[in-house]
Design brief:
Chain lengths: 477, 104, 181, 506, 660
């Protein structure tokens, strides 16, 4: 019996509602039940999305489950599953030298609503629903970033994120207003025909130019593209660690989805032009991200710059033709989600008492060789060195860019990869080479069972995706 | 009576957006910045309505988008102000320049 | 363009309100001038025959959002507190950027005249309540029911988030103690 | 007993050894070393048996006149359908010999690093990864698989040198890793250019080599591929990582790195750059021969002034690698065959040198040649082996160095152009400076009066003797009976040469 | 290669000549030198003896079998060792290992085998007390193996292979007592100087291989090869016809190995090694390799008058130079070293002078040179053995500690007298016949100047040899003689070698004149020429004059022996001659100051500072850029917003050229 393709979306809404009710109940028992329910639910949803087949029919007028859309759903669910599994220890035991976070179930409910927004972005076919979907994927994030606004740095990070986000949504709306003005209607198809007629010279493209520029300003904020990424380091450092992971994984994937939908949807006729723009922005973003990360000593700030650089690399894929770009970006985002969560998990375990800075990693290879090994696999995957998954992911990205003929850009991007290897190796330097100060030799590391499971599964995922990437071919089907 | 043309309204909206942008960049009081954001959103709405009125094949959806944007702006401002209040309770200030503990 | 006196008056009011918001040092004055600007916008919508928008504008924006903006201002700023003055350099940079933006958009809009004449102007009652309502709620092909549902989810999420964020922390961990950590 | 699975087993066995080491306890070093001794010993035997059956298969076969390399023990499975990437594994003469060379050096390396105590498990796991990468590169004929194994071989270098190295280990480790990965960044661009430039949507080397790439395409991408691989084989401007890297690396790592990894560069140029872009090669090589000649003549002079033994050996590797590149750059059949032989001979030679230096450093705790003297009296075995390695280095007949060098010189002289002739004459005369610095080092260290603080030094113990003997057998084997190596290489160099000739005069 | 079946046993298995010394090297090298030190001497001597017998048998059977063959040359055994260039536009080039027996190689096999055996016997006595004798004998047999291989080489590649092996074994043997820094330095100098010459030799081989596409001597010396070599070939820096350049390069190899001027500096220092080493390597075999190479390539060289002139001049000059220097030396082994230099100068001068002024080649010159090689080997080896015994007794090499050994060592005294008479060229001893042949052939070939130089050098030779003889054996003892005695093992070879020194000349003369005829290129005609009668008479007179002068100065009643031995208070010219015209110091200056300081140091500085510096600069600039990005991140919201808005403008500008 073929499951209706809309099933995962509806189930997600139900799960969000269920979590809200648990939050409202407010007693201790429901609080403890929230996380297992959320993790179980999301896992179920992920399995469901794997079983469901995409179908061309439109539900409720504009909601459709396209093949790429389905893969993005699987990506969002996979990423959210990882974030929830990671966040549980922060709500149970706390981390990064601060106390445990409160109101777990509300956190999860908001998280799932963000997920719904992301689902919307990949499923709709008109500007209005797209705008609301995008805002639904962003505004609850302001709340999540501000989950510990009472803390000195948490508050500051939340404020910065909100103000920047508001500015970005202004530009988004402005761009949509001009797109609507051009096309006369909100439907992607109408916009596309209008853009096509402008492309072959039957009208001045001034409006289109401003619309595209404003669009990139909007998505630039969310995807941390070069001129718009100044907020990232501060917010990644200030926000609670699970939210930082959420930002770097789910929010980035949503932004990539949004950009892909727009570039291959309404702006498809101007694809050659937008690709060139993406090329320039990608080169700038990866360079600034890499350069910024060199001197970092705080782990989360380090991961911020690393995620800016990775955004630059993902943009490199978007330069390629539609199917190849989507496939490459999807595979890389899967690998990036797994690797980033693995990195944050290791930092969480290592930095529980000493705070998440480079010092907490010192002498890790002696204290717990397994964790140091996982950190090494993680760093090499981020740097894109074989045999771990990052390499194959990066290779897909570059192959998508190369298929558009930008060979020298691929060499530039690969050299940027070398630059990124420089600071990723600095992390390993702390773990393996820098001698431990005396007296702190045997800081035992507490790793609770769920974290062990998480670390194990992610390590397997990162290594296996590297060695037998046939898994990637299901993306490009 | 179409006493004025579309481009006049568009220019007016752009002017509003520009003033809002200037305010956002130059003000130091956070709530002032939010006010300017409101202004920019309003300018975008004027744009939408103008396009709907003058030359849209499907005018109702343009107006609908502007109505939705008003609702979303409301939600956004609510969240923003909540965060400001929470931060103010802790940092005792609304000055954007004082918020520079996170840097480097 | 034939200068229509009513339009010019409304436009002047809007620009005055906007400038007031951006430039007044005292945030309260800024909020009030924003109110003026929004009223002028509502009138403009009427001029453009978008009654529904005008209604939404006045009720939601002015009635809702601006009211709790003022509450927020009163809650957070202590009376007699000196107003914040931003540096000259920053203002100059802001002016430069916003000027560039204006130039870009004006240049784009001026070029767009002939593009727009391709289609007929809408009839008077285009954004009547009936049309907007039908568009909003019809699950059929053209309808925007999905957007409506998403908007409800968005408002719900915002509601939950705001409460979670702005609730006064539980008495056991007061801020001073957190200070020491 | 020559099924393709055995060939793939060669790079899987080290990974199995690494996997097995994961489950060993931290402090029983002996178990770790035994596991690895057994695994790499087995691998060596496997390599030898493959070589024997390879020679049996190619007995008396006249070198192919075609332009496609014949693969033995070939296996071709689809790996990543999205980009039509195959696990296309096979061996021809050169690959088989390089695999044997690697097996010998890692076997000797394991025994040379018998003294590693600190985090021995991690050391050996990384070493296995390094070797698996090298094996994979030599046997894979799919460009993507070759590139993947090529980078895997570079991956563990940072940790191996950084953690277990000596001297300015962090600086050298970072410098080495970054320069090599920057080189492979060039390769990434080159490989994708080949894949998409050829519109064949395949990474198979044999298919790509038959595709007539346009001349302008070849003119642009040959230098990219050449310098991408050249960085690893210390081409002149990018050779500075080699002295620092080898001086700081632990014994086994510098043995493997100088012995085998630097050959990956030459092998890559031969297998990819020249094979797929022949016109680019014939067009660029007359210009690239100048830095190569500088490489050959420049190394000995700098080695002359060095005090540290490892720096001397590192610069000698730079010079010998220059010879390898010279052999390739002259584009004649004998030249290319000579460079292939030089890869093998230099591999054995440098492997033995670094093993001995490691052992001597283990005893005297100094690598400065001036502080040592008269060691021959205290450790005759190591002394004699060092002298033998030295003589192999300066090209004494009867040892592998001479056979390779003479083939290269004869091949290089066949190229009629004046610039190449000049470089060949310089290269031939540079054997004198090579002799000078090798003898200077050997005499300062081994002969002359024995300082009293070295009075109580002991000679090599059983594991060190085993390591040295294996490599000496290699040196003498190739030196005394070069016939079978020359025939094996004919089979692999012939298609490449025909391809080059076809390109020059289509 | 003739059909193997027809050949007699020894010729069919001529490889045994090589196998025996190799077996001795391997056996002693791996086994006895560690376990049973004392056994290594006897084992290697027995094997050397067997090799001597088998060698002579081979030569004898070759002599009978090759009667009818052209030039008496045959290749009874050879196999393909290494092939170069299977494909491509050039014919495949293969280097083989084999045995070429013809008059000169047979003669050399006999000489090397004989001397090797006697030196082995002598070494048993000489090295009895030396603890490292286990290492000495394998190296000696390695040298014998290498020298025999060189002599039997069928092609120039095989000759180069064994040429290097000879160089290495001489390096090991000179530096045998490696705890002595002077021995180590001497061995290093020997190897590097010969290696310097070998580089040119290799270049010559490569040029020959490129033009002629073969290594075999028969092909190289053929007319076809000579014409092919006439074509101009580019050497990168200059363009020249291949023949003269290749011939000069090949001769350069011999130049270094035979220690001709100015590459002679390593031979006097090579005396640091044990005396048996000097007796076999630096007297009879290795240093003759250069002459043997020139003889082997004689047909090719004879086609190039300029190279023949070069050989003649180098030979003559070295002969004169060495003779002059030998006069003032105090160390008896240095005297013999310079005398060897002088005699080899004679041999080369004979080969060079064979080129008649008006074109054509005097066959007699070639046979005279080979004859001298044959005779010189025996008496020079004998002299070194005598020196060895004398040093054993006197304790060190200096003449000042010798004197009056006539009574203590009668047999050695008589053998020394025989050798000295032979080398001085006093008839009827062997030296006279061969040296006289050389001088006569010089005059016949129309080189009067060279002839007279030959005669004068003959006189000088007689003078310094008799000075050597009188100062050692006559006069009163200058050091205690309490334990002086003649060791049985050492005296036996000395006596045995005395016999050939006396009679080798007369017996072998007809043989050399008939058998040693070089096969010349077709357009070079062989000139017979008449025997200049006055030459033997003049030579003998001059030799006697030299001897009498030496007697008068060093042994006669009014001899002032003390002043003879004192080299310090002498006129400037004498001290200059004593210090060997300071050629060593010049070479040392060139190598150390110029090569090391002026060339190697700047290159090292360039490598470490410029090339390395550039890489570090790139690294530092990237890190600096990273610092700037961080500085930009000052955490203020205003800058973030300004960048965002600025970013919009930037993107709008970028989109400018995209959306016109």
């Amino acid at each position: 019996m073929t499951l209706p393709s809309i099933l995962p979306d509806v189930a997600l809404l139900a799960l969000a509602a269920l979590l809200l009710l648990a939050g409202l109940a407010g007693n201790e028992k429901s609080e403890r039940l929230a996380f297992p329910a959320a993790i179980g639910g999301t896992a179920l949803l992920f399995l469901l999305s794997l079983l469901v087949q995409p179908s061309p029919e439109k539900f409720l007028g504009c909601w459709s489950v396209t093949p790429a859309g389905l893969h993005f759903r699987q990506l969002f669910l996979f990423a959210t599953l990882l974030v929830e599994a990671f966040a549980r220890s922060y709500f149970r035991r706390g981390g990064d030298g601060k106390g445990p976070l409160e109101r777990g179930s509300e956190f999860l409910a908001t998280l799932h609503l963000v997920l719904l927004g992301a689902f919307a972005v990949v499923s709709v076919d008109n500007l209005l629903a797209l705008f609301v979907g995008l805002e639904l994927a962003t505004i609850p994030l302001y709340c999540l970033v501000a989950w510990r606004a009472g803390d000195r740095r948490g508050g500051e990070a939340a404020v910065k994120y909100v103000v920047m986000g508001a500015g970005a949504s202004c530009f988004d709306l402005f761009s949509f207003s001009y797109l609507y003005g051009l096309a006369g209607s909100l439907d992607f198809g109408a916009v596309a025909t209008r853009v096509a007629s402008i492309q072959d010279g039957s009208g001045s493209s001034g409006l289109l130019r401003v619309a595209v520029a404003a669009l990139f300003a909007g998505v630039g904020f969310k995807l941390t593209i070069f001129p718009f990424q100044m907020w990232a380091p501060d917010v990644y450092e200030g926000a609670p660690t699970p939210v930082t992971l959420l930002l770097s994984v789910v929010s980035k994937s949503a932004a990539v989805a949004f950009l892909l939908v727009l570039m291959h949807g309404p702006l498809a006729p101007a694809l050659a032009k937008t690709q060139e723009l993406v090329l320039l922005l990608s080169a700038l973003t990866m360079t600034v991200g890499n350069l910024g990360a060199i001197h970092q000593r705080h782990l989360r700030r380090f991961m911020a710059y690393s995620s800016v650089a990775q955004a630059g690399f993902i943009l490199a894929a978007l330069v390629g033709p539609a199917d190849r770009a989507t496939g490459a970006a999807l595979f890389y985002l899967f690998v990036y989600a797994a690797t980033n969560t693995l990195a944050f998990a290791v930092f969480a375990v290592a930095g529980e008492e000493r705070g998440e800075t480079f010092e907490c990693l010192r002498g890790l290879s002696r204290r717990s060789p397994a964790l140091a090994g996982i950190l090494a696999v993680c760093m090499f995957s981020l740097a894109g060195i074989p045999p771990v998954a990052g390499f194959v992911g990066k290779f897909f990205l570059f192959s998508s860019a190369a298929s558009a003929g930008h060979y020298l850009f691929v060499v530039f991007a690969a050299l940027n990869g070398t630059l990124s290897l420089y600071y990723y190796l600095h992390v390993l330097r702390e773990a393996y080479i820098v001698p431990e100060e005396e007296g702190k030799e045997n800081g035992a590391l507490r790793v609770d069972p769920l974290q062990k499971v998480l670390l194990g599964c992610l390590l397997l995922a990162v290594v296996l995706l590297g060695l037998l990437p046939q898994l990637s071919d299901f993306l490009s089907r | 009576m179409t006493g004025f043309s579309l481009s006049a309204v568009l220019v007016l909206a752009a002017l509003l957006f520009a003033v809002g942008l200037y305010g956002l960049l130059s003000r130091r009081n956070l709530i002032g910045m939010l006010l300017c954001v409101e202004l920019m959103l309003n300018a975008a709405n004027v744009n939408l309505v103008a396009f709907a009125r003058f030359e849209s094949g499907d005018p109702a959806s343009g107006a609908l988008l502007s109505v939705f944007s008003i609702a979303i702006a409301g939600a956004e401002m609510a969240v923003a102000l909540a965060i400001l209040v929470a931060m103010h309770r802790r940092r005792r200030t609304l000055d954007a320049d004082e918020l520079n503990e996170l840097q480097g | 363009m034939n200068a229509d006196p009513v339009f010019l008056a409304v436009a002047a009011a809007m620009v005055a309100g906007a400038l007031g918001t951006a430039l007044c040092k005292n945030v309260l004055h800024a909020a009030l001038s924003l109110v003026l600007c929004f009223f002028a916008t509502a009138i403009l919508y009427l001029l453009l025959h978008a009654e529904f928008n005008a209604l939404a504008q006045t009720m939601v924006y002015v009635g809702g959002i601006l009211v709790f903006m003022v509450f927020a201002i009163l809650m957070t700023s202590r009376l007699g507190e000196k107003d914040l003055e931003s540096g000259a350099g920053r203002r100059a940079a802001a002016l430069l950027v916003s000027g560039a933006f204006l130039f870009a958009v004006v240049q784009a809009v001026s070029g767009a005249e002939e593009l727009l004449s391709l289609r007929k102007a809408a009839n008077e009652g285009f954004a009547s309540f009936g049309d907007v309502g039908r568009l909003l709620l019809s699950p059929a092909e053209g309808g925007q029911l999905v957007a409506f549902e998403l908007a409800t989810a968005l408002l719900l999420a915002a509601l939950v988030g705001v409460v979670a964020v702005a609730r006064r922390p539980a008495p056991k961990s007061d801020p001073e103690e957190e200070e020491r950590r | 007993m020559s099924s393709p699975l055995l060939l793939s087993a060669i790079w899987v066995v080290p990974l199995l050894a690494a996997f097995a080491t994961l489950f060993l306890k931290r402090d029983d070093h002996l178990a770790v070393k035994l596991v690895h001794a057994v695994c790499h010993g087995g691998n060596l035997l496997l390599a030898i048996s493959l070589l024997v059956s390879f020679l049996a298969e190619t007995e008396g076969a006249l070198p192919a006149s075609g332009t496609v390399t014949q693969l033995h023990f070939a296996m071709d499975r689809i790996w990543i359908p999205a980009l039509n990437i195959h696990y296309n594994v096979g061996v021809d003469g050169l690959s088989m010999l390089m695999i044997l060379l690697t097996a010998m050096i890692i076997f000797a390396g394991v025994f040379a690093s018998w003294g590693i105590r600190d985090r021995a498990r991690e050391f050996f796991i990384l070493l296995d990864l390094l070797v698996a990468g090298v094996y994979g590169t030599f046997m894979s004929f799919d460009l993507f698989a070759l590139f993947l194994f090529y980078e895997v071989a570079v991956l563990p270098m940072y940790l191996l040198i950084g953690v277990w190295g000596t001297g300015r280990k962090e600086y050298s480790a970072m410098k080495l890793t970054l320069m090599l990965v920057a080189g492979s960044a060039l390769l990434m661009g080159g490989i994708l250019a080949l894949y998409f430039g050829s519109h064949l949507q395949t990474f198979d080397l044999n298919v790509l080599s038959q595709y007539p790439f346009p001349r302008s395409f070849q003119r642009l991408f040959f230098p990219i591929l050449f310098f991408g691989f050249g960085v690893l084989s210390a081409i002149f401007p990018f050779h500075t990582w080699s002295p620092d890297g080898h001086a700081s690396a632990p014994t086994a790592v510098s043995m493997l790195h100088a012995g085998v990894l630097m050959k990956l560069g030459g092998y890559g140029i031969l297998r990819v750059a020249m094979y797929v872009l022949p016109e680019g090669a014939t067009e660029w090589f007359p210009w690239l021969i100048l830095p190569i000649a500088v490489n050959v003549a420049y190394g000995p002079f700098v080695a002359l002034r060095q005090r540290d033994l490892k720096y001397i050996t590192a610069y000698s590797s730079v010079s010998h690698l220059g010879l390898v590149l010279l052999g390739l750059a002259v584009c004649t059949f004998t030249g290319i065959k000579g460079s292939a032989m030089q890869m093998i001979s230099h591999g054995l030679l440098t492997g033995l040198f670094f093993a001995l230096i490691g052992m001597i450093y283990g005893r005297t705790h100094t690598r400065n040649v001036d502080e040592m003297g008269g060691l021959m009296k205290r450790m005759p075995f190591l002394g004699v082996s060092f002298v033998l390695a030295g003589f192999a280095g300066l090209g004494l007949p009867g040892l592998s160095g001479f056979v390779a060098e003479s083939t290269i010189f004869l091949g290089a002289f066949e190229n009629p152009s004046a610039v190449v002739r000049g470089c060949t004459v310089v290269a031939i005369l540079s054997i004198v400076t090579t002799a000078v610095y090798i003898l200077r080092a050997a005499n300062r260290m081994l002969h002359g009066p024995l300082p009293e603080r070295f009075g109580t030094l002991t000679d090599a113990v059983w594991n060190e003797r085993l390591a040295v003997i294996v490599l000496l057998i290699g040196l003498f084997g190739m030196g005394l009976f070069p016939g079978w190596i020359a025939d094996a290489l004919d089979g692999s160099v012939a298609p490449l040469f025909n391809n080059l000739v076809r390109a020059v005069v289509p | 290669m003739e059909n193997a079946a027809a050949l007699p046993f020894a010729l069919r298995h001529v490889w045994i000549v090589l196998a025996l010394p190799l077996l001795s090297f391997v056996l002693n090298g791996l086994w006895t030198c560690r376990k049973k030190e004392s056994w290594s001497g006897p084992i290697s001597t027995v094997l050397a003896g067997a090799n001597w017998i088998f060698g002579t048998l081979c030569v004898w059977q070759w002599w009978k079998a090759s009667a009818g063959l052209p030039g008496r040359s045959m290749v009874p055994w050879s196999f393909d060792w290494l092939t170069f260039g299977q494909l491509g536009t050039f014919r495949p080039l293969t280097a083989g290992i084999g045995a070429l027996l013809d008059p000169i190689s047979a003669m050399m096999v006999f000489v090397v085998a004989t001397i090797a055996f006697f030196v082995h016997v002598y070494s048993i006595g000489y090295m009895r007390e030396d603890p490292a004798r286990g290492r000495f004998f394998p190296l000696l047999s390695l040298f014998a193996f290498a020298m025999l291989g060189l002599v039997l080489a069928t092609n120039v590649f095989q000759m180069y292979v064994f040429w290097e092996l000879v160089g290495v074994s001489s390096y090991q043997l000179i530096g045998f007592w490696y705890h002595k820094p002077s021995a180590v330095a001497a061995s290093k100098k020997a190897f590097i100087v010969t290696r310097f010459a070998d580089a040119f030799f290799l270049l010559g081989i490569v040029v020959l291989a490129w033009v002629v596409r073969s290594f075999d001597f028969s092909v190289l010396n053929s007319a076809a090869a000579a014409e092919a070599l006439l074509r101009p070939v580019s050497f990168g820096f200059f363009e020249a016809p291949a023949l003269p350049v290749a011939a000069a390069l090949v001769f350069a190899g011999g130049w270094g190995k035979s220690a001709m001027f100015p590459l002679h500096i390593w031979l006097p220092d090579a005396m640091e090694g044990p005396t048996p080493v000097s007796s076999i390597i630096h007297s009879a075999t290795m240093v003759v390799a250069g002459v043997f190479l020139s003889a082997r390539m004689f047909p090719l060289f004879s086609a190039v008058p300029s190279v023949m002139g070069l050989i003649a001049f180098v030979g003559a000059f070295t002969a004169a130079f060495a003779a002059v220097v030998a006069i003032a030396q105090q160390d008896i082994k240095r005297i013999l070293a310079f005398s060897t230099l002088s005699q080899i100068g004679y041999m080369l001068f004979a080969l060079g002078a064979a080129a008649v002024c008006g074109g054509g080649v005097l066959v007699a010159g070639y046979s005279a040179s080979m004859f001298h090689v044959f005779t010189h080997a025996f008496f020079k080896c004998l002299l070194f053995l005598v020196a060895g015994s004398v040093i054993h007794v006197a304790g060190n090499n200096m003449l000042s500690c010798m004197g009056g050994l006539r009574t203590k060592m009668p047999l050695t005294y008589l053998s020394a007298l025989a050798a000295t008479l032979a080398i001085s060229g006093i008839p009827p001893f062997s030296g006279f016949w061969s040296k006289d042949e050389i001088v006569a052939s010089a005059f016949q070939a129309g080189h009067p100047v060279l002839g007279t130089v030959g005669l004068l050098v003959g006189a000088l030779t007689a003078f310094y040899m008799f000075r050597f003889f009188f100062l050692i054996f006559h006069g009163e003892a200058r050091s205690d003689r309490s334990h002086a005695h003649e060791d049985r093992w050492m005296t036996f070879p000395i006596v045995c070698l005395a016999i050939p020194s006396l009679c080798a000349g007369i017996l072998a003369k007809p043989l050399f004149e008939s058998a040693f005829r070089p096969r010349l290129l077709p357009w070079v005609q062989a000139v017979e020429g008449t025997h200049a009668a006055f030459v033997p008479v003049a030579a003998t007179l001059l030799a006697l004059l030299g001897a009498v002068a030496a007697w008068f100065l060093y042994c006669g009643p009014k001899a002032d022996v003390a002043r003879a031995l004192d080299a310090e208070h002498r006129p400037a010219w004498y001290r200059l001659v004593y210090r060997k015209f300071c050629i060593d110091e010049i070479w040392l200056f060139v190598v150390r100051r110029i090569l090391f300081e002026r060339v190697a140091a700047p290159i090292k500085w360039f490598d470490r500072k410029i090339v390395d510096g550039a890489m570090n600069l790139v690294g530092k600039s990237v890190v600096l850029a990273g610092w700037c990005v961080n500085a930009l991140q000052n955490g203020s919201l205003a800058t973030a917003l300004a960048f965002a808005a600025g970013g919009f403008i930037l993107v709008w500008l970028l989109a400018g050229n995209l959306f016109p």
